Amino acid sequence: MTKRWVIPDIHGYVKTVTSLVKELIRPTRYDEIYFLGDYIDRGPDSKGVIDFIRSMQDDEYNVTPLKGNHEDFMVELYDAAKRSKNTWLPKFGNKKNKTWFEVGGKPTLESFGIQHIRDVPGDYIEWMRNLTHYVELDKFVLVHAGLNFKNDNPYEDLQSMLWLREYEIRPEKIGGRRIIHGHVPVNMELIIQSIRNKVYKFIDLDNGPYLTGKDGFGNLVALELENMEMVIQYNMDV
Fold first, then answer.
1. Distance (Å, rounded) from C-alpha 194 to C-alpha 203?
2. Which end of the chain has fewer CB atoms at under 10 Å, N or C?
3. What is the pLDDT of residue 95?
4. Residues of the chain whose pLDDT is less than 50?
5. Is the pTM of this model over 0.85?
6. How are beta strands 140-143 and 178-181 bridged, if at all?
7. Among 38, 162, 48, which residue's Cα sits nearest to residue 104?
8. How many whole angstroms separate alpha carbon 136 and alpha carbon 175?
9. Alpha helices in 164-213 (DSSP H)
10. Among residues 140, 228, 225, 227, which one has the least CA distance to residue 178?
11. Which residues are registered as beta bridge partners of 32?
12. How far apart are CA 26 and CA 52, in angstroms?
């Protein structure tokens, strides 16, 4: 039977996601794997994470990677740097560059072996730029952050799908489906409760793999949608 796996924010931890997929999930090419975005920043090998996902696509695994806010931000910074005629983001970039480094941009550049974002190979930027924002399944909507239910059509607000943190879910606007997302790290207890109890209108799968010193956090999880089975991989990169 075809399985459908959902994997949230990876954040540059390539050993962790490789072990999760190859050792725990062990997908066939008939299975479906959905990644919820935030492949980059914080961890040591953002380039390696993108290479891993792209290699699965090249090997014709049924992989659907969504866009996260970190990819959105990196593309924005790259475009601004390319438009600049002088040094590294002279007007636009000083503040946003500092913000990016505060959330893990420096190790992302290091993973590419470069010092300036303008030197990131263009095919990686285009891959991130063209990622899809959401997937609608029979019982679930998969998205990085959330949906803007203040809109008559929540699917029209693409920025909210990447950046939203707090919102009231209106299931009737999305065909009674539950939302599965990442973006905001939550402890393992809440993840398990939301999977087991359908009273929750959402399932937040982000356990914050970079929060290894915090009780109840620090893992990368995957959820299989047919049996609602969860597998857990501790952070192997730290």
1. 5
2. N
3. 84
4. 88-90
5. yes
6. parallel
7. 38
8. 10
9. 188-196
10. 140
11. 4, 62
12. 14
Structure tokens of 110? 């290091």
**Inter-CA distances, 184 with 37, 78, 101, 125, 152, Å:** 12, 25, 19, 24, 25
- State residue 93's pLDDT score: 57
Please give the structure tokens belonging to residue 119.
């030197």
Query: How many angstroms separate the CA atoms of 133 and 154, rounded?
Result: 12
| Assigned token pair, 188 | 């393992």
Which pLDDT tens digit goes with each residue over 93-106? 578 889 999 999 99
Look at residue 202 and give its three-state secondary structure: strand
Residues pairing with 106 in the sheet = none
Find, among 37, 11, 32, 34, the residue nearest to 182 by Cα.
37
b/e code 127-158 from CB counts within 10 Å (16+ = b):
bbbebebbbeeeebbbbbbbbbbeeeebbebe
Amino acid (1-letter code) at residue 192: I
In total, the chain counts a number of residues equal to: 238
Tokens found for residue 1: 């039977």
Domains and CATH numbers, the chain: 4-234 (3.60.21.10)
Residue carrying structure tokens 């879910």 = 169
Of the candidates 83, 104, 111, 87, the one whose C-alpha atom is nearest the C-alpha of residue 14 is 111
Position 94 scores a pLDDT of: 72
Q: 10 Å Cβ neighbour count for 20?
A: 24
Q: Among candidates 90, 89, 91, 66, which has minimal Cα distance to 77? A: 89
pLDDT digits (tens, 9 = 90+) for 107-162: 999 999 999 999 999 999 999 999 999 999 999 999 999 999 999 999 999 999 99
Q: What is the DSSP letter of 228?
A: T
